[in-house]
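During the second year of the project, the team shifted from modelling isolated chains to modelling whole assemblies. The rationale, set out in the original proposal, was that interfaces cannot be judged from single-chain predictions alone. As a representative example for this report, we include one of the complexes processed in the last quarter. Its constituent sequences, exactly as entered into the pipeline, are reproduced here:
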Amino acid sequence: MSIRQLTTFYVDAFWFGVEVHRVQEVIRSQPMTPVPLAPAGTAGLINLRGEVVTAIDVRTRLGLPPRAADTAPMNVVVRVDDEPISLLVDAIGDVENVRSEQFEAPPDTLSPASRQLVRGAYKMDGRLLLALDVDRVVAAA
Amino acid sequence: MEGFDEIVREFLVESYENLDQLDRDLVALEQEPGSRDLLQSIFRTIHTIKGTSGFLAFGKLEALTHAGEGLLAKLRDGGLPLTRERADGLLQLVDAVRAILAAIETTGAENAEDYTDLIGRLTALQEEVPAEQPPSAQQAPGTQQDAPAASAQTHPAGAGSKQATPDRPSIPQPPPHPAAPSGADKSRGRRSGKLPAVKADEPSPSEPHVPLLGEVLKEQASVDDADLAVARLEQELGDTRPIGEILVEHGQVTKDQVQAALAAQAEAKAGSTGHPVAETSLRVDVTLLDTLMRLVGELVLTRNQIVATAANQTDSAITRAAQRLNLLVTELQEGVMKTRMQPIDTVFSKLPRVVRDLGVACGKQVRLEIEGRDTELDKTILEAIKDPLVHAVRNAIDHGIEAPDVRLARGKPAEGRLVLRAYHEGGQVNIEISDDGAGIDPAKVAERAIRAGFAAEHVRQMSQREILNLIFVPGLSTADNVTNVSGRGVGMDVVRANVERIGGTVDVTSEVGVGTTLRIKIPLTLAIIPALTVECDGERYAIPQVNLEELVSLEGEGAAHGVEFLSDAPVFRLRGALIPLVWLDHVLGLGRQPGPGDALPEIVSIVVLQAEGRRFGLVVDRILNTEEIVVKPLSRQLKGLGAYAGATILGDGRVCLILDVRALARRAHVVRDVDQQARTTAADEMIASIGGPEALLVVAVGRRRIGIPLSMVTRLEEIDPGQIEHVGHTPVVRYRGHYLPLARLADLLGEHGGDAEQLTVVVYTQGTRSVGLVVDSVVDIGTEEPDSRGDLSAPGVTGVVVVDGRVTELLDMEQAILAADPRFFEAVAASDAADVSPYDGYDEDAVIAGAGEGRRTGGGV
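Output from the structure prediction step:
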């Protein structure tokens, strides 16, 4: 009965969604400053209109192979504990309306590491929309 | 309802500020009882709180402040002396008011505490009027004595006196409003057109007012209105003399009376100009200032971009505009930074109360002196140093200053002296806390350090200053007995941790029996800092200038010889001191630290940094430049990495990490532990850890490879053979103001050395004496291979080793030195005995620990 709106994006073969109210903005690929010694998931720092924002590569976090060298990632800037954090994804999808009765447990096709970061899946027309647990993605990065 | 909350909030902010002032005033009042200015200021504060609390219906607060106000009014009007009991009562009043305000802040209502006792006490304190009490001597001169009886009667008793009635002719009572601009009284006196109507010059109650001299004289019953009118008329008619002079000439007053009146007038003026700030200042939310500061930071970055772009333009209009923009932004930046600056007094002003209460609690008499109240600091920093300062002051009183009887027995005044001093120096703020107490006994600290598990020989090697600084190490409190004030194990280490967190440093000096001084150095602001940018592994990093000592660039041959390896640890010598080297790419996990024998780049760029009292050299790929950077926080995930102090955005818009020098030093184990402060100790350890293989300077003599212990090489020099002179049979050259006797190793070893155009000389110095060993050329620096030593002996050599796969003979240094200067060791021993120099034969530790003559290799090559 309750309808939620998810901002969706693509990473590798997966289709993910994050609740719309968590997403601050979506921007194109930005020059990245690497942070040596940072955990593997941390892709680097970007300049978001004067604010220094940490970028986290969702591929690395999910244990997926790195993005092809010639493709630039998109930045999905989400707010975590009132701090902006950018999630690096392959491409941006539409905003989707999902209903709670479409919700089910994460599929077995996901690796155990990935299952930790996914709250569950919404059965959409012909494909699964995975609800990404932003807090967990960010916490361990 | 929201409007009401807003009023309450403002009331709280204002009252807290006033209470801080009140604390200070009350303590000052004890030193200076009867100061009308102080009493007036205190009275005004309590009165304001009372008035507003009545309006906001905080009944308890109103009743309490009303009682306090009554007491204050009596004190102010000179009816009561300020005794210790009354001061205590007033301080309790301040505490109670603070408690109520705190309750209002958190719950929106007054607390449940019952203050009737305190109110009763405050009322009782004002009742006790000893009949014989004379008027306070501090009162304005002449007011009481000379005033007519009628005037004296207008002083209302008790709480009623708060209504400063306009017709009350009390001169020293400073009007509750800011003064008119100075000089206004004079011009008003001259221009007054309504001559006989002197009343027209009477102050209106709402008008800022400094009494006219004539008025004052009239108060003092020396002149009447008619006399004044005549004198003023003369002024109107062109007499330019002051009114006092005219009246003296008329014989209506004496010179003394005029002087007294002038003094009274000056006092009134001072009192009324005390608070004009309110008119010209605004209360601004700090978050707004933070936002402004951030925007200015962005503007600075944008400015940098535009200026850089404009530099490549030919259009002069754009260049000019860019230059103008550059100037304006710099000014704007300074202006906005200033808005965040506050005088250090906002922190200092809390200390008199701390000192007083502690003095009473510890049974000690302490006089607090504060210098440099106006020294300004960024608000964030001020907040950060508040606790360390209070802690340091507590420590000084609790452990530094002795009890009065002890002080007297030691021939010091019973009252201890605690001096707080703040001043700017080199873009930083220094704060000193000095007491004239017992001082810290280094022997005691050392003993405690050893008991706490420090290696005894380390402690023994430390200088006195290094030992004293051990008090900042956790768990090394030197208090003999734990008191409820301090000495509970958390102590000076917290002070240092807090100061270092904001990029400051702390240092202590002390003399037993004379006193202790704590010196805190802190940056002016945290928001925009000067920094050095360097490049490492293709990325730029910023290093805060505070940590920077100097930049050293070793090029070409210098790079190969300047970097030595003690065991596997790379070091270089900077004017005699051994400095550990840390490769930035290695600390950041991007590269490998070069080991002995690794090829070094053409140019080794070393940034000499200082952290926790220790120096180290950070090797970077390239040193770029210095610039002002805007510090931006890192996200929570990256704060804990222990490598970065933040990030900034450079002129090209790219993010750049700011290195946390202290954390890097720890990461690289340069600062192994907080407790290992001594630089010399570190050097000793490094040398001790070499144990076996020693670094050798390999030189060529004829066809032979000769190894000289690197520790015996002070310098390498090139000398023109034409400079050689002879003393007896010994060839010498003039070298650094001395004669340097030379020995040709070729002669010593029975080789035929070639006649080079330039002689290569290995200089060995001990104390003030040097010898030069002439070699054909310098081949390399290397380490002997393990177990390669053989005792194959030849004249002038002590054995052979293998260095870099080739047989190398070890020079008999003693013989070589004696060949150049047969009296070398006698002379050195004699001068050792004379000045107790730390040099001791071939003792390498001593040579490195002693800073005397610098030892360097590679310098002259």
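Chain A has one domain: 3-139. Chain A has a mean pLDDT of 89.
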